[in-house]
Specification:
This protein is of the alpha/beta class. The chain has one domain (13-131): Rossmann fold, CATH 3.40.50.450. Helices cover 49% and strands 13% of the residues. It is built from six helices and four strands; from the N terminus they run H-E-H-E-H-E-H-E-H-H. Strands 1-2-3-4 form a four-stranded parallel β-sheet, with helices on both faces. Helix 2 links the parallel strand 1 and strand 2 (49-52). Helix 2 packs parallel to helix 3. The termini are far apart.
Length: 142
């Protein structure tokens, strides 16, 4: 298979999706920046997809840049208000602009579940939201 076809295939169907919640600031600990860079690089080098908050700043931006630089897909989900502040990452493979934070979290969960990858914490949160009738959440059975 030619390298162009391999690159195209990687873009269409990632080997896995990883949904990551992290800060829009780098924080005061350099180890956090290094870890965000390492995780992003790992996702990209293993043909993965990062699903995250869609920001270009802080740990979010560092991880997204590293994933993209290593050849991974990056799916960002960001509220319109943050786009208007010019905080969106314009280099995302996909960028979903949503109305609010609840919709952001719902879309991030859907993106992660789409390929059947979601953490136990996220699953529990979605189930709790569904059971209590919170608007904007959907329960997924996998």
């Amino acid at each position: 298979m030619s390298s162009d076809v391999t690159k195209l295939t990687k873009r269409i169907k990632p080997a896995f999706s990883l949904c990551v919640y992290c800060g829009s600031r780098p924080g005061n600990t350099p180890e956090f920046e290094a870890m965000a860079r390492q995780v992003g690089t790992w996702i990209g080098t293993h043909d993965g997809q990062l699903v995250y908050g869609g920001g270009r700043n802080g740990l979010m931006g560092i991880m997204a840049d590293a994933a993209l630089a290593a050849g991974g897909r990056v799916v960002g989900v960001i509220p319109k208000a943050l786009v208007e502040k010019e905080w969106a990452h314009s280099g995302c493979t996909e960028l979903h602009i949503v109305e609010n934070m609840h919709e952001r979290k719902r879309i991030m969960a859907e993106q992660a579940v789409r390929d059947n990858h979601i953490t136990a914490v996220e699953r529990r949160e979605i189930m709790s939201a569904y059971e209590t009738g919170m608007r904007g959440y959907t329960y997924f059975e996998s």
